[in-house]
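Hi all, long-time lurker, first post. I run a small reading group and we've been trying to get comfortable going from sequence to structure in the token notation. Rather than ask abstract questions, I figured I'd post a concrete chain and ask someone more experienced to write out its structure so we can walk through it together at our next meeting. Sequence below, copied exactly:
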Amino acid sequence: MKKILPFLAILVLLAACTPGQQVSDADMSTRVAQILTSYPTETIDPNLAPSPLPLEPFSTQPPILEPTLTASPPPTGTPTKTLEPTITETATPEPTGTPAGPTVTQTAPPAPAFTAPATDPIGKLGSPASLDPMDSAATWNWTIGPSQYNTMEFKDGAMLMTATSDISGWRLAGTESLGNVYIEMAARLDKCSGSDNYGIIFRVPALKEADRGYLFGFTCDGRYYLKMWDGKVAPEGKMTTLINYKKSSAIQPGSGVFNRMGVMAIGNRLILYANGALLEEYRDNTFASGYFGVFLNQDITPNLTLRVDQMSYWKDPAP
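-- Answer (accepted) --
Happy to help. Here is the structure in token form:
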């Protein structure tokens, strides 16, 4: 699998570095730092199992329906799902000359309602501090348009990020710097395969530099991971794997399938969620606060497209 290379995009500035090129401090200071195009050497945390799980498609689907995504009002509790309509079938008697009997009505049982897991943060956090319905770039001051490695636009009520290179990259929201926070994104990959992946980059200390932070990702085949990027480590930056790729039945795999991805950062606690289900907690105090955004890594599928229908964040949450 190709290694993930962060690519940063922010409110007003973008920058790019050629993969493998050593970048001096002087060169870096003259470039727009929102796009990181060089790929660092990953360092696997010695406490983690080094071997990723197989990439065969994960067939078990959790009982999770696509979220209802609306611009207003913001979610105030556990989301509800609309049940399938009742199906009524009327039996037609065969023409045997015998008077037909009474009409037989069969009512199909309703589809089971989605029940959010007890660990679902939005069931107890109330209204978010800020919600972006992804109707336009203006809400959170996203930087749109093409770059050397991807393009971003807002269309049909969604943010569309499409890879134009196999170099991965991200764009940051022009919001406030956040300390203790819960960030959630409802998104899907269009046509995807295997290790194609996307996610949330968070606790980026400097918006204009955008060269450090954590990356929480989902793969097309239903795995998750947590990494840490530090672009200030000479000569080309350093990517450290904190949680190696793991499969989870809480993540819905495949093309065109929505997932709710959430990360709660409280002090040194980094708590990861998929569709409201608790995945894992990792402790690291390298970055205490910062900005956040969205990243995309075209690992297999050309022109990989991510659709983000909604993002929200809650300040000072309780797990």
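A couple of things your group might point at:
The chain has a mean pLDDT of 76.
The helical segments are 25-29, 122-125.
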